[in-house]
Write a structure and sequence with these properties.
The chain is an all-alpha fold. The protein is 75% helix and 0% strand. The longest helix has 32 residues.
Length: 448
């Protein structure tokens, strides 16, 4: 008997799509520069521990909500906690997803622009000169990045309107294996550079003398960001799962793939940065200013740069699919006739929402709020306030509003794990995860 189009066709299809949501700009773009700015190996080790322990606990919590109710976030929270305000977690998730995608698509547009420039070889041409100046000129060209921004949104809409099986699962099933293959090629090339091992040591050899309170809290935030947690995306994706799926095994696979990509990302970037005596703490512009300089010094550098940008585009798109799907599922789940309209209206609305972010480095560069451009304010609001708030509310909600026995049945169904595993998870999600998020949240707000 075939499955309806609003369910995942295969287990691997779900894992690849969910991993694609997690493996986006957070792993390929943000993690390397954050690691570079935070001392390297020690930060990466702490990030891994937080991802394995706290990230996995919250991922399973979102899975339990979605699979148990088989409904999108707002309806799911209403079913589990009727006649209460808990459904605002779902509303918060949708708002956060729209805001994330609004500036995420802008960065996706930058990647598309750089990808097409790389195909001509102009990005690795020594005549390109100062890559920082080049990056500034590209993102301030509102027509060029505006068209690329629109193209990125259109691609996202076209995939999501196709549904779970024929859209997201099919395309993710192509993009994710391609992403891994490209990553392996880049890592091999990076590791064969003279001086590459210095970059490997920086990335993987912990130096705990560089670890402070900010490093630990930053690693915690990155663990949640890298798994797409806190905005109920995984509630949405797991609502399309059948009841026989092993949630623990799926969560383990997704976390494992996310960690693997984080590892490959560092191994693809830092050896090249150190081989050519560049600074690893460049910041958010790392992939647009430092990496072209690295590839320009390599044989066939333009080819490898194009491959990296294609990889980054795939990673960004698979995350964008999940961000739009949470909006579309609210309207169209179990109503396939509404999906196409929901995808286009939602996607184009998010495109309009992203225009001020797109113009933040050009026409609106002088429009400052709290001393920051619009793009940076949206990024700060989502990453430092809405995401941790959503994660905290989900961590509180699950053990509070779902009976312990129901949670045990949901998580252990189809699994060979014993009740001891469940007890450890329950303690982690009920006590350790909320406390850790509160500490990180208070630090971001500057309470201490």
């Amino acid at each position: 008997m075939s499955q309806p189009n609003d369910q995942w066709k295969t287990k691997i299809g779900f894992i690849l799509a969910a991993a694609g949501s997690a493996i986006g700009l957070g792993a390929v773009w943000k993690l390397p520069y954050v690691t570079g700015m935070s001392g390297g190996g020690a930060f990466f080790l702490i990030f891994l521990l937080f991802t394995l322990i706290l990230g996995t606990s919250l991922l399973l919590a979102e899975f339990a909500i979605g699979r148990k109710t088989q409904k999108p976030p707002i309806q799911a929270y209403k079913e589990l906690a009727p006649n209460s305000a808990w459904h605002w977690i779902g509303i918060l998730g949708i708002i956060s997803s729209c805001l994330i995608l609004s500036f995420y698509a802008v960065v996706g547009g930058w990647i598309i622009t750089y990808f097409f420039r790389s195909l001509s070889g102009s990005l690795t041409d020594p005549a390109a000169g100062d890559y920082e100046v080049l990056f500034g000129s590209v993102i301030s060209n509102h027509w060029e990045v505006g068209i690329a921004h629109f193209v990125f949104i259109i691609i996202t809409i076209l995939v999501v309107q196709g549904g779970i099986q024929k859209g997201i699962e099919r395309v993710s099933g192509i993009m994710m294996p391609a992403l891994f293959i490209i990553f392996v090629v880049l890592v091999i090339r990076s590791l064969t550079l003279d001086g590459a091992m210095e970059g490997v040591a920086f990335f993987l050899q912990p130096d705990f003398s560089k670890v402070g309170g900010d490093t630990i809290l930053f690693a915690l935030g990155q663990a949640f960001f890298s798994l797409s947690l806190g905005v109920s995306i995984m509630v949405t994706y797991s609502s399309y799962l059948n009841k026989q799926e092993n949630l623990v095994r799926s969560a383990s696979s997704i976390v494992g793939l996310s960690i693997l990509i984080a590892l490959l990302s560092g191994l693809a970037i830092f050896p090249g940065v150190f081989a050519f005596d560049l600074e690893p703490n460049e910041g958010p512009s790392l992939i647009f200013t430092v990496l072209p300089a690295v590839f320009s010094e390599m044989a066939f550098g333009s080819v490898f740069l194009s491959l990296f940008l294609l990889l980054l585009l795939f990673a960004t798109l698979t995350s964008a699919f999940s961000l739009l799907e949470i909006v579309v599922s609210t309207v169209a789940k179990n109503h396939p006739q509404r999906r196409k309209a929901a995808a286009w209206i939602g996607g184009l609305g998010i495109f309009l929402l992203g225009i001020p972010s797109n113009l933040s480095y050009g026409l609106l560069s002088d429009w400052l709020v709290f001393g920051n451009i619009f793009f940076d304010n949206v990024d700060y609001l989502v990453s430092n306030i809405l995401l941790p708030l959503g994660a905290l509310l989900i961590a509180i909600f699950v053990p509070l509003k779902i009976k312990r026995e129901d949670l045990k049945e949901e998580l252990l169904r189809g699994s060979q794990l014993n009740h001891g595993f469940f007890n450890v998870w329950f303690i982690t999600i009920r006590y350790i995860t909320p406390i850790a998020i509160i500490f990180a949240f208070l630090d971001v707000l500057g309470v201490w």
